[in-house]
Amino acid sequence: MGVYSQQTIKAINKKNIYMLINADPGISRIQLANITNLSKTTVSALVDELIQEGYITDEGSVESNRQGRKPNSLVVNSEGNCFLVINWRKRILETAIVTSSFEVEHVNETEVKTGENYAAQIEKQVKECIEQRCGNKKVLGICLVVPGMIDSEAEEIISMVLSLDEKQKVIQELRTRIQEYPLSVFNDTACLAYAENAFGDMKGRNYVYLNMNEGVGAALVYEGNILKGATGMGTQFGHFSVDRNGEKCVCGNRGCLEHRIGELALPQIAKECNAEEIFQEYAPILFKDVGNLAAEGNQGALRIIDSLVIDLGYALSNLIAMFNPESVVIGGMGRKLGDIFLEELQKNVRATGFQQFVSKVDIRFTRLKEEALLQGAAKYYMDMHYKFLEDMTDKLFLY
């Protein structure tokens, strides 16, 4: 067996052990050997390396039913390692420190200066966070989360939400500005869907994650894996047409769902529903405002809910007919629309969709908190991309 093969196997085993410790804090070397079917000597050697490198810590002996020497408890070193996750929204850059045990430790928000150099703005937030907040923590990776597609071949962000100029090559410029750390650029919906799978209470393995925010996205999860398109860019549910004679979208399609149910579409929908007056005090109008007013019985808000339900129900019924998921989980700010919206959506889909499919699908809001996006990005990067036996400096990963 060649050196390369030996190193590859060692890397796989080392990461597997680390992830098992991360998933089960307090696990012992003996338990790891039993789970992995590796020898106790191999497990001990890999654990010792992980301790020496600062990835895990040995908390000492713990109570056990076994006779003889008490086993030692192993945990990830969340005090010494972290991820930086930047959530790039239309108006806000949200910069967060996520520990290696996937706990969100610090979040800072700054306003995005539209039209100015975006890579420079992101670099500034990254460096300030590292200098002022990370202390002695080792930054295992930087994750940039965007509301849009990532073209991995061209290394470009394709987003209808962000104000991107063709002249601004954000990914390429960030690679030159932040060379000392690995950089990942992920789609926001994919991160939320992965968080649902990793941290949520999913009973099934096949589901749709619907991300309702300023834009609209969906991720299809089959057997716990997020499905990607032929180019790796995944589905663009927000650009399903719900009105072939509708307004033309910058994507080239007409009547895109994103322009009918996205949060940025609410002013137009309020106008169409004769509900502009009730929102004069809200700037901008948000899903939570519509949900709160609808719960109070406000008729204008209820008409907006009806409009959102009709368009989303139409698109969702078609998606269910194509994919036949066990459940549909609605996340993002769309969950702020509240119970009335959810109940009406469930009724609409069951009344209009393919009965064999829609009668069985569970449609619900996510039960995870807003920080799930940040956790999902860090978890996805660690699971899919981080390597223990490679130099991760200047690595680039795109989803």
What does this structure look like?
With 399 residues, this protein is an alpha/beta fold. It has helices at residues 3-23, 29-36, 40-52, 118-134, 170-177, 188-199, 258-261, 266-272, 287-295, 299-323, 338-352, 355-358, 372-384; strands spanning 56-61, 72-76, 81-88, 92-99, 104-111, 138-146, 149-151, 156-158, 183-187, 207-212, 216-222, 225-226, 327-332, 362-365, 396-398. The strands form four sheets. The chain has a six-stranded mixed β-sheet, sandwiched between helices. The protein has a five-stranded mixed β-sheet with strand order 12-11-10-13-14, sandwiched between helices. The protein has a two-stranded antiparallel ribbon with strand order 1-2. The chain starts with a helix and ends with a strand.
Per-chain topology:
Elements: H1 3-23, H2 29-36, H3 40-52, E1 56-61, E2 72-76, E3 81-88, E4 92-99, E5 104-111, H4 118-134, E6 138-146, E7 149-151, E8 156-158, H5 170-177, E9 183-187, H6 188-199, E10 207-212, E11 216-222, E12 225-226, H7 258-261, H8 266-272, H9 287-295, H10 299-323, E13 327-332, H11 338-352, H12 355-358, E14 362-365, H13 372-384, E15 396-398
Helix pairs in contact: 1-3, 2-3, 4-5, 6-13, 9-10, 9-11, 10-11
Shape: globular
The beta-strand count equals: 15
* Estimated share of beta-strand residues: 15-25%
Oligomeric assembly = single chain
Helicity level: 25-40%
Unreliable sequence segments: none
Radius of gyration of CA atoms, rounded to a whole number: 23 Å
Number of helices: 13
What is the SS-derived class? alpha/beta
Q: State the separation between the terminal residues, measured CA to CA.
A: 34 Å
Q: Strands of the largest sheet, in order across it?
A: 5-4-3-6-9-15
Average of per-residue pLDDT values: 90
- Compressed to H and E, one letter per element, the order equals HHHEEEEEHEEEHEHEEEHHHHEHHEHE
How many strands, which pairing sense, and closed or not: the largest β-sheet? Answer: 6 strands, mixed
